[in-house]
Amino acid sequence: MVKAIQFHRVTPKFQFCGTWNYPSQFEAFISFISDNIKVVLPDEDQSGVVITFDDGDKSVYDYAFPILKKYGLRAVVFLIVNYIGKDDFWDLALIGGRSPHLSWNEICEMKKWGISFGSHTMNHRNLTKLADHEIEYELSESKRILEGRIGSVKCISYPFNRVNGHVVESAKRAGYKYGFGGMGQSSLLVKKEAVYITDNIRSLSAKITERPKFLYRYDRVKQQVINYFTITTMLSKR
Questions:
Q1: What is the mean pLDDT of the chain?
Q2: Is 147:111 a contact under the CB 8 Å cutoff?
Q3: What pLDDT is attached to residue 221?
């Protein structure tokens, strides 16, 4: 069975959202994973954990990528195609400035080393609330543009972890082999566990192994609470 550990932003600067990690915290997590967990990529046809990053924030290149290289671990970065090389105006910032996204040059450098890339759609909209032609655009156009620049793209990460049967069928028609979101029912519903600033080694281990059960259930609730604060952004992207 494959499941994903999902990161977003890795930065030394305090963030008012919960979906980030300090570089030292991230390195502690990667060190633990390197010593204890089998890390795979989705198309390797074997069980393990996939390290992923949603959104394609530039901090992945600045802080996470050097740490991944240090430990020799690969990952999948999901890109919001319309924001490559731009600031994150798709998100509703609570306080402070905007964060830049990865540039094409940074993406190509990371890919040459062994980092994989997938789609996080064109505009980071809630796919379950869109009309058919909008879903097709978000899925197919992002795949087309990415493949024109970096080669084959097999993976999609559903924005806000919102997915239903109709979206899955649309992803399949668009040519995706792996979809990240859901509860692990199929290769297009790979289960992902978000890792946030509130996490530590114990909670990371529980998310990966789903043991002990009481701690895993607690951390799933914690993920849901943090994700609740994405609702404002999600509503603005409908």
A1: 92
A2: no
A3: 86
